[in-house]
C-alpha cells in the first residue's frame, strides 16, 4: 500500500479556535503524519500523508473543524510523498516565513512509542487576569551599602545588555525582532542565579549537616520558570550564531561570578536579583505598552506557542502574545518580590517565607501565587 501526501488549506474562522490541536488529534487517531500551521493570511495550512482512505477521513474532519471554528472551504492537492516522517505536528507561526522551515525543526518535540506526554515538573501557580494587570513597575530604595553595590551592578549589567541587544530607549525604536533578541538574552541570564543559589544552599546543607529551611526549592523553581520563559521565546525566534555566542559567553562568566558572589554575600546577591527583576518587569511593561500603542504590529495577531499554553495553562481566548507578556511579567514581579524578601532575611536561620504556613493565615503573608504581593519585598519583622 503506497502512501499519498496532500497539502491542504482551510478557510474560514479557523485561527484562535484550537483548529491546529484539533487537526493534530484527528490526524493521530487516524494514523496520518504531517503537520499543520496557522498561515499569515488567516487560513490554516499543512500537509498530511497516509493511505487514500485515511486521507479521505482526515479531509472530512478538516471540513468539520472543532466546535468553535466555522470552516468555509477546504482545498487540497496531491504532492509528492515524504519518507521518514512518523508523527503529526503543530507548527508555530513565525516572524519570517522564509525561515520557517528551518525554525520548525528547532527543538521539535520527539514522539516516542510509549510516552504520552511529559508535563512541567513544577506546575505554574495560576494567575488571574486582574492580578496580572495589577502588576506595576516598582523600585526598592537602597538602604545599605550592599544595596547600593547591588544596584550599581545591575545598572552596569543593564548597560551591557542594552549594548549587546541593541536596545534603544526612544519610543518606537524597538521592533518585534529587537525585543525578541533582548528577551532571549535576558532570560538566558535570568535562569542562572536561582540555580546557583539553590545549588550552593543544597551543598551547604549537606556539608554542614543542617536543614535548609525550604529555600532550595523556591530558588530552583525560579530558575525553572526563567528557563520556561527562554524556551517560549526560542519557540518564536531562532537566535543567530552571534546571539548564541553571547549567551555562551555570558553563561561562562556570569555563572562563575554568581557562584563566588553567593558564597561571599548571599543577601547582596538576592538584592541584586531583586533589582534585576525590577528591570525585567520594566522591560515587559514597555513591550505591552508598545504593543497596545500599535508599535509592534507583527505581535498583534501572534499566538503564544503551545509550550506556553501548556505551562501557564492559558485559557482559551487568552493565548495571544499580549497574554503571554502579561504572564511573563507577572512571573518577573514575583521573582522581584521573592528576591527582595530573601535579601531581607537571616540567610542561615530564617525559614523560606514562600514555603511556610503561617499561624494566622488570614493575615496577608508571602505566597507563591499573586494572592498577596509586595513589589519591594516583605520586611523581616512582618513575616518571621
Ligand atoms: Fe524571565
Ligand atoms: Fe525573572
From TrEMBL:
The gene is AOX1_1. Residues 347-368 have a biased composition (Basic and acidic residues). Pfam families: Acylphosphatase, AOX. It catalyses: an acyl phosphate + H2O = a carboxylate + phosphate + H(+). Residues 80-96 have a biased composition (Polar residues). This is Alternative oxidase. Binds 2 iron ions per subunit. The active site is at residues 20, 38. InterPro entries: Acylphosphatase, Acylphosphatase-like_dom, Acylphosphatase-like_dom_sf, Acylphosphatase_CS, AOX, AOX_sf. GO terms for molecular function: acylphosphatase activity; alternative oxidase activity; metal ion binding. It comes from the Eukaryota. It comes from Didymella heteroderae. GO terms for cellular component: mitochondrial inner membrane; respiratory chain complex. Keywords: Electron transport, Hydrolase, Iron, Membrane, Metal-binding, Mitochondrion, Mitochondrion inner membrane, Oxidoreductase, Respiratory chain, Transit peptide, Transmembrane, Transmembrane helix, Transport. Its EC number is 1.-.-.-. Belongs to the alternative oxidase family. Belongs to the acylphosphatase family. It is a multi-pass membrane protein.
Amino acid at each position: 500500500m503506497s502512501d499519498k501526501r496532500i497539502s491542504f488549506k482551510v478557510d474560514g474562522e479557523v485561527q484562535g479556535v484550537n483548529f491546529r490541536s484539533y487537526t493534530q488529534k484527528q490526524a493521530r487517531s487516524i494514523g496520518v503524519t504531517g503537520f499543520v500551521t496557522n498561515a499569515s493570511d488567516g487560513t490554516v495550512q499543512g500537509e498530511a500523508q497516509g493511505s487514500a482512505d485515511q486521507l479521505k477521513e482526515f479531509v472530512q474532519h478538516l471540513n468539520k473543524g472543532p466546535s468553535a471554528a466555522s470552516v468555509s472551504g477546504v482545498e487540497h492537492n496531491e504532492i509528492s510523498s515524504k519518507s521518514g516522517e512518523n508523527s503529526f505536528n503543530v507548527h508555530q507561526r513565525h516572524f519570517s516565513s522564509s525561515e520557517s522551515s528551518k525554525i520548525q525543526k528547532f527543538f521539535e518535540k520527539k514522539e516516542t512509542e510509549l510516552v504520552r506526554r511529559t508535563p512541567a515538573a513544577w506546575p505554574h501557580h495560576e494567575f488571574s487576569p486582574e492580578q496580572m494587570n495589577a502588576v506595576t513597575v516598582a523600585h526598592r530604595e537602597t538602604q545599605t551599602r550592599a544595596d547600593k553595590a547591588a544596584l550599581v551592578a545591575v545598572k552596569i549589567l543593564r548597560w551591557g545588555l542594552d549594548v549587546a541587544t541593541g536596545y534603544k530607549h526612544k519610543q518606537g525604536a524597538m521592533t518585534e525582532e529587537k525585543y525578541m533578541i533582548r528577551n532571549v538574552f535576558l532570560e538566558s541570564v535570568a535562569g542562572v542565579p536561582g540555580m546557583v543559589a539553590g545549588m550552593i544552599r543544597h551543598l551547604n546543607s549537606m556539608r554542614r549537616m543542617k536543614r535548609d529551611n525550604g529555600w532550595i526549592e523556591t530558588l530552583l523553581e525560579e530558575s525553572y520558570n526563567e528557563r520556561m520563559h527562554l524556551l517560549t521565546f526560542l519557540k518564536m525566534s531562532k537566535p543567530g550564531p552571534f546571539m548564541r555566542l553571547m549567551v555562551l559567553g555570558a553563561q561562562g562568566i556570569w555563572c562563575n561570578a554568581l557562584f563566588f558572589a553567593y558564597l561571599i554575600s548571599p543577601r547582596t546577591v538576592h538584592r541584586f536579583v531583586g533589582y534585576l527583576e525590577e528591570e525585567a518587569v520594566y522591560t515587559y511593561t514597555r513591550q505591552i505598552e508598545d504593543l497596545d500603542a500599535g508599535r509592534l504590529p507583527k505581535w498583534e495577531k501572534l499566538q503564544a506557542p503551545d509550550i506556553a499554553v501548556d505551562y501557564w495553562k492559558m485559557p482559551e481566548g487568552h493565548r495571544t502574545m499580549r497574554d503571554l507578556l502579561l504572564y511573563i511579567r507577572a512571573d518577573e514581579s514575583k521573582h522581584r518580590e521573592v528576591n527582595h524578601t530573601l535579601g531581607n532575611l537571616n540567610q542561615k536561620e530564617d525559614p523560606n517565607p514562600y514555603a511556610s504556613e503561617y499561624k494566622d493565615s488570614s493575615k496577608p503573608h508571602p505566597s507563591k501565587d499573586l494572592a498577596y504581593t509586595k513589589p519591594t519585598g516583605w520586611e523581616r519583622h512582618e513575616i518571621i
